[in-house]
Amino acid sequence: MSKQKTSYSCQACGATSPKWQGQCPGCGEWNTLVETVADTGATAGRFQSLAADGQIRQLADVETAELPRTATGLDELDRVLGGGLVPGGVVLIGGDPGIGKSTLLLQAMTRLAINRKVLYVSGEESPQQIALRARRLQLGDAPVALLAEIGLEKILNGLTQVKPDVAVIDSIQTLYTEALTSAPGSVAQVRECAAQLTRYAKRTGTTILLVGHVTKEGALAGPRVLEHIVDAVLYFEGDTHSSFRLIRAIKNRFGAVNELGVFAMTDKGLREVSNPSALFLSQHREPVPGSCVLVTQEGSRPMLVEVQALVDDAHSPQPRRLAVGMEQNRLALLLAVLHRHAGIAAFDQDVFINAVGGVRIVEPAADLAVLLAIVSSLKNRALPDKLIVFGEVGLAGEVRPVQRGQERLREAAKLGFTQAIVPKANRPRQAIDGMTITAVERLADAVGAAL
Ligand code: TYD
Ligand code: MG
């Protein structure tokens, strides 16, 4: 293959430069120049539109068919994908090393292989290693085609030969294309390889699952460049100390985001957890100070999560604020609201917050529960038994309603909770059996009602 010319283009403004520079000559940003293929002549077809002919058509005239979905056989994965894999769809699965991405995909592929043609391309493990893992998971005889390769051109050849319905690329960071001189894993290589594979997927209707590693900062390596190339981005997350693994959609062109799939890592691979609502509660025999149960909504499923707070005298002028499973800045903000609008000061206290079970809570509906856990720890008094709490707390000290309040309450009632403190607007019109509901408008009212 003839060597193609490369140039450097700015990730921020798009300016190009024939050689690498620390600062972009166009916009003055630092470290934004990235190697790209410059020679369009030699690589005809590198850029193509998705429509074959480039005609202008009316939206209403475009024929569509309901996208046929291929279920992977793992319901929790299908839920996050919006019902299954779509032909021509490209899905990026990100996660920390060792979290179980390869295991998940191997399990999904061996199930799919029953009635689909699948190809598993690995740049990280040898066929022996993959086979060994498959045997251990008792999936050894599934008709999965394996290819251990990191050259993009050879992989595309392999794909053309095998013509699989579904292909896995494990991982995108190990691939390199001969068109670029930079090393595998660099932004340029990752982006170019993903773009080429996406083009192949769209052209042939093959579903491609790309595995991507996450950097220390928590972003998919290849600074977000992949996220807009692909159709769906899933994150595989979990605490390495707990066996639970959560898979979450960050972007999905074929379904809803914020769906959550739950798995448990066992010695026989990943096992689906189809009813996770009570998973993130710790078992206290009697109520303890600093613990509050909240109902969070993950996609279509409500889930009960215990939030724990520890408030203790600070021994330095800079008290510590630490939030595990929640956003740190939000904690600082909530403590300010607590002082201003409920008159409870914590400026001389260290405050630690933890969401039990390694779950990560992203929605502001957790605010009220976090604050009640903090007040409970500060006063060293337990909250009432069998109490659940949800509600967003605003800067003016108001308790704002959250989405799907009714569903959350019903799920909590199902799990045996008998009391609830909720935003006023979330008060159900019909009583919920066995549940005493206190509706509050202000943070101070909630603190008064709970303690
Ligand atoms: P892996 O799928 O290789 O992670 P990734 O591809 O995301 O880097 O998962 C490896 C981890 O999973 C490893 O630490 C061991 C654990 N594991 C089990 O606990 N049970 C099993 O059956 C398998 C296959 C892996
Ligand atoms: Mg792996």
From TrEMBL:
CDD domains cross-referenced by the UniProt entry: RadA_SMS_N
Presence of keyword DNA damage: yes
Domain (RecA family profile): residue spans on this chain: 66-214
Gene3D superfamilies (UniProt xref): 3.30.230.10, P-loop containing nucleotide triphosphate hydrolases
Pfam families named in the record: AAA_25 (PF13481), ChlI (PF13541), Zn_ribbon_LapB (PF18073)
Renumbered residue ranges of the record's region Lon-protease-like: 350-451
Protein residues bound to ATP: 95-102
Domain notes: The middle region has homology to RecA with ATPase motifs including the RadA KNRFG motif, while the C-terminus is homologous to Lon protease.
Family named by the database record: Belongs to the RecA family. RadA subfamily.
This protein's name: DNA repair protein RadA
Source organism (scientific name): Chitiniphilus purpureus
The encoding gene: radA
